[in-house]
Amino acid sequence: MDKVIIFDTTLRDGEQAPGAALSSEQKLEIAYQLENLGVDVIEAGFPIASPDDFKAVDLVSRSIKNGSVCGLARCLKQDIQAARDSLKKAKHPRMHIFLATSKIHLKYKFKKPQDQILDLARQATRMARNWCADIEFSPEDATRTDRDFLFRVVETAIACGARTINIPDTVGYSYPQEIHSLIEDIINNVPNINKAVLSIHCHDDLGMAVANSLSAVLAGCRQVHCTINGIGERAGNASLEELVMALKTRRDAFKKITTGINTKEIFRTSRLVSTLTGFLVAPNKAIVGKNAFAHESGIHQDAVIKKRSTYEIMNPKTVGVDKSQIVLGKHSGSHALSKRLEKLGFKFSREKIGVIFKQFKRLADKKKEVFDDDLIALAEEETKPKHKNYELASIKVTTGTNITPEAIVKIRHRNKICESSSSGDGPVDACYRAVDKITKIKVRLINYKIEAITIGKDAQGLVRVEVSARGRQLSGRGSSTDILEASVKAYLDALNKI
Ligand code: KIV
Ligand code: ZN
Fold it and tell me: Which among 30, 55, 237, 250 has most CB atoms closer than 10 A?
C-alpha cells in the first residue's frame, strides 16, 4: 500500500486568491483545523511577503505539533533568511524554495540565460539546506519549461540537498496525459530522482487541476499540493477534498494509494475556510457544496430512499456531512413527500397524500425549495376541519405610496362566487372590509400577527388572527407565499368557526 503526502497550501497559495486575505490569527485557526484534518504539510505563508505573513508562519510553527510547517521563499538570500527565522520554532520545519525555469519567465521576468538560473538554483538550495534539513524545490512554470533544462534543474536541486521536487503547473496550462508523460520523463531522465519525493502543484485555469494532480499520482508523484475548497491564485488550486475523495472512492483506479486525511473533518474544514475567507462555496461544488449530497428529482429521490448507492457514490458521513438531503422541490415525487411528512409526524392515507401532493406541487412552482415548515403548514391545513362556509376565490389589491389601498375580494359561498370591493387604512384592512361586506358579519379584529414560515424572499407567510364576532372570540390561521392572501385566509378561517 502506497501513501501520498498531502501538502496543503490554503494559507499560502489559497490566500493569494484575490480577496481572500487572512490575518495571522485566522491562519492559526485554520492551521489547527488542518492539523485535525490530518494534512502532512501546512504551507503557512510566504514570510518575506509581509510582516503579517511572517507572523503567521511563526505562529503556526509554534503551535502545530503534527506534520510539517512550511514557509515559501524565492531563491534569494533575504527570502531564505526570513523563511528560516519564521520556521525557527517549528517541530518539523520545511522550506519551500522556487525559481522560474520556463523560457517565457527567463526572458521577461529574469532576463537571464539558463546557465545563470541553474547557478541560482544551486546556490539557493545549498543555502537553504544549510539552515533547514527539509528542503522542497519548485521549478516554477515547469509544465512550460523546456524538458532537458527542467531535468538539469531538478538534478541540480536534488544534488544540492532538496528532498522534495515539486512540479508546478503554474498557469494551469497542462492536461492529464501531458502531466503523466512529464512525470514519467522526469523519473526516467533525472539520474538522482530516487533521492527525492516527486510532488505536483496544479492550478485550475482550465478546470483540470484535480485531474492533472491525479494523473501525476498515477505516474509516480507521491506528494500533492492542494487547498481547501480549491481556493488559490486566479482560478485556484487543486482542491484537497476532491483529490482525497477521488483517491478514496476510486481506490481501484488509483493503485490503492492512501492519504493520512481524516475525511470526516473535510466538511468542517471547508466551512471554516469559507467563513474566514468570505469565499462562498458554490452549491454544486463537488464534496462540500450544499447540493453535493442533495437529491431533488423524484426519480432520484425514490431510488435513494430505497438504496442510497443508486445515486450516491460516497456516503456523506465519510466527509462529515450528517446525511444526504432529500430536497423537496418541483421535481420531487409523492414518495419523498410522504416520507418527509412521516418524519415530521404526519401520517396520511394515500388519498390525502394525493391531495397534499397537488398543493405541494403548486407551492413548489412558486418556491425554489420547500422547507419542512412549509410542509407542516400544508399538513396542518389538511388536518383542519374541511367544512368551509367561506372560501377565498381571489383577491386583487391596489396599494402604494400616497394612495388609498383598494381591494376586490371574491369569496366562494354556498357554491356561488360573491364579490365585493373596499378601500381601507392599509391593504389588509381593505381586504377585511371587503370580506365583511360579503359575509355581513360584524367582526372586530383583536389581534393580527404575521411571520415568515421559512427563510428567503420566496418564503411562505403565516398569518394568525383573533377576532370577535357574534359574541365569540375566534382565532384563524392562513398561509401563502402572498401575505395578503394569507391574511384573508386567516380571517375566513376564523369566520368559518362561527
Ligand atoms: O504556482 C506556482 O508555481 C507556485 C509556486 C510557488 C510553487 O505557487
Ligand atoms: Zn501556485
Answer: 237
Q: Whose CA is nearest to atom 4 of ligand 1?
A: 170
Confidence of residue 326 (pLDDT cuts 50, 70, 90): confident
Residues around ion ligand 2, judged by CB within 5 A, are 13
Q: Which pLDDT score, from 0 to 100, does residue 494 have?
A: 87
- Scored b (16 or more CB within 10 A) or e, 156-193 reads bbbebbbbbbbbbbbbbbbebeebbebbeebeeebeeb
* pLDDT at residue number 194: 98
How many angstroms does the Cα of residue 313 sit away from the middle of ligand 2? 30
What are the counts of helices (DSSP H) followed by strands (DSSP E) for the chain? Answer: 16, 16
Say yes or no: CB of residue 138 within 6 Å of ligand 1. yes
Domain boundaries, the chain: 2-277, 294-383, 391-495
Q: Enter the CATH code of domain 391-495.
A: 3.30.160.270
Ligand 1, atom 5: closest residue by C-alpha:
140
pLDDT tens string 263-274:
999 999 999 999
What is the reported pTM? 0.75
